[in-house]
Amino acid sequence: MTTAVAEPRARESLFTKDARKLVWITLLCLFLQVPGQSWSADPQLPGSTDTHQLGFVQFEARPWIGWVLLTIGFAVAGFVVGVARRGAARWDQDRVLALGLAGVVGVTVLVWVLFIVQWQWVFWAVAHGDLHPFTIGDVSSSVHLLEGAP
Hints:
Blueprint: H1 14-37, E1 40-41, E2 55-62, H2 65-84, H3 93-127, E3 138-145
Antiparallel strand pairs: 1-2, 2-3
């Protein structure tokens, strides 16, 4: 009769745990970027008043592949450089993974800051006569004139 001895399971390294966290946080950040990239604004055309509307400019923003690629790029770069720096005395794998994570979170914060700034910007620009202001990302605009407007 032989008895099977269970082999001791290798412990996960801190790098493996951190890499797993990096993947989950990257996915969470990508999910959180979608509402910040999906906005719309309908500022009135210059010269419109509360009683006499000339029309409006409609802005529609959709998620942009550039932000997705930048976010994934930070995560992949942090992981790859972390693997290359494994066991280094300075700038070890944990610090590099943390920098990759900071890049991922930083892009998400940037997306939300740009959402707020661009949303305010299109209202200001249209009110000052620029019907096609500069925007970042996948933003389309169209001018709608109301019936009876000169």
